[in-house]
Structures
1.
Amino acid sequence: VPGGLAYQAVRNFVLGDYTEAIGFSVQVTVVAGAIAAGLMLSEVFNHSIRAFRERKERI
């Protein structure tokens, strides 16, 4: 969970250090995107495995 990075991003925005804030914001976006992609990928694998097992049981 990128909560610590998000905190640092907001903190740096408030302090006026925009370069650091943007860097932390990019990191937050990448981590959150990776988490979302991992969840989607696991769902695709789970669906594929279930479909394969169902086809195998029909035969």
2.
Amino acid sequence: MPVIAVDKPLHLTSHDVVNRARRARKTKRVGHTGTLDPLATGVLVLAVEDSTKVVQFMEADSKDYLAWISLGAGTPTLDAEGPLDETAEVPTLEAGQIRSMLGQFTGPQKQIPPQYSAIQVGGQRAYAVARAGGELDLPARNVVIHSLELLGVFPSVQAAPRTFDPSGWNPAGTGLTFTLPEALGEFPTLLLRARVGSGTYLRSLARDMGAALGLPAHLSGLVRTRVGRYSLADAVQLEDLEAASGLSNLAALDFPHIDADEQMARELRQGKRPRRSEVGRHVVTLGGELVAVVDGDGERLKVVRAWA
């Protein structure tokens, strides 16, 4: 314990943040619920010591982002790491045209991951093959993009807003100001607010949106503003990790709760399936303490993980 939301700085890997948390908390038992690329910032949820056992129930949490997508310029990494490998003139784009295009990228869909990613095929990491000049045949993955909202079209990423009101993550005069990667040039840039399911690559979305417009494109900035119940507005800075209180295992799990009596708690710990009408995933508590995470089918509870 506990579970802590950290504001990951620019240029650090998620593993870098985990290593700093291990030193700050004086433990090797630190995990996270979903990586952020080095050029992305924002919410990285860490689980410390015994809380690592709840990570498996948080990895599927939906995530919110602010994304800057620059059109007319492509890169091998699909982000601002570069270098530029393709450019094109960008015609005048109307906001209505962009919003219409966004509609085809919402809902369940197939998405091909970036070549510069940690995905393994045949025991090979895609990024390692890409850095050596090769390319893997990466199969498309099932992802869900819950919503995409256009916040503006700007002449360049340098001209796009970087300060936002945390209450709704709209551009504002005061609020949180974000540092984006160094721009690769001045290219027309879309600013989006996105809510996506687990496993979605915003870099791939930038590539695919550009292709839908007949243009190369890359992700020129990315801030993760929410993971599950954790908002960036409440995330701690790296230097505050040592003293951060975070949330308990029970508070960290964003599932409905079932209050159990001693008999049900005992049966769940024994792996039995007591009858219960709830449908879906729940946490079961006895006396306010976590007993089990279960799946209910409307007839009985199936134990997913139990804690004595």
3.
Amino acid sequence: MAVDNGFLSQFVEETTFYNRIILSHLLPASLWEPLPHFLQTWLRNYLAGNLLYFISGFLWCFYIYYLKLNVYIPKDSIPTRKAMILQIHVAMKAMPWYTLLPTVSEYMIERGWTKWLAFHPLDGILQAVPHVIALFIVPIHLITHLSLLFLEGIWTASIHDCIHGNIWPIMGAGYHTIHHTTYKHNYGHYTIWMDWMFGTLKVPLAEDDNEKAM
């Protein structure tokens, strides 16, 4: 399907609008306006990503480690300040590269290299790459694509926080912890279905006991 130049022009106008909204509120115009459009887009994603990381991380820690102390995690299991700072340091090293993915996605769409989006454009690094590769194969709405990247980051964090939601058939943190201890079970992403089908499912102990009791 041929890409409509009017569509591409409208898409660039929209991403430029997004850049202006974020950057104009966070940086002096003299610092970002001279930059090429690609770098403006990356800077917008980088700054917004950092804001989201620190705000959501603070609220999550405040809720789990303060308001709900000893409800989800015992007090003696709370990470030390040194451990938290180390995790923040690692996240900051990854942030420039992680936010490069949606930037590259937008650039590919703006250049007309991907499959034409199925609708109007108003519509956490390696694990998100398949979503970018899919742009070459499957027509997908821009907002759907960006939402998948966002949800990927949320999901990746949630399955590593050791708080097992125990919502069947979701592949929660309990399942994923087993994956990191045996390295031969629970390869699934969002649900347990594929592991169940191929015989690699290992149920967390508490759930296993509940199933036997039923």
4.
Amino acid sequence: MAQAGTFDGRDIARIAVFAAIIVALGLVGPIPVPGLVPITAQTLGVMLAGAVLGWRNGALAVLVVIVLVAVGLPVLSGGRGGIGVFVGPSAGYLFGWLAGAALTGLIAHSGGRPLRWWRVALGCVVGGILAIYAFGIPVQSLVTGLPIGDAAIASLAFLPGDAIKAALATVLTLALQRAYPPAFSGVRAAGSSVRAR
């Protein structure tokens, strides 16, 4: 058994695969919303990363994507990338992905395995929606000059799509658990000091 905090080749491979999934979901072009942050499919990848990989590796998969953006690769929806993304209206949402994947993983895996649908769904809603909005809305307000209340109300337009993504992430995670349990090996329940076998 490996000690907590260590990585093996399988961890690195899983992190790389989920970073690639998040990037691939960016190939689905953004749906522009006038005056708002565009709707993208990439938050589905963020939810999946946390739900499948757990809090640590899920957050690391998102961190890989953020680093790729920072070095200028066009990995965000619509082919966006570069330092300019970190000062735009969507910057807070991008950083919210990191917290979102971690919270999704913490909640989904809090009871150990097998995963239960309600924990995965709760993780996707709290991490994949609420945490991302908690980072995104204040930054959007700051960058656009909108009062924070108006930015929050404007963000309600995203809720139906995000709820669909949370439901889809829940279904896909549970289907993967049934079809390919090794995808979840190495994921520890929150508070566990030894990796699950």
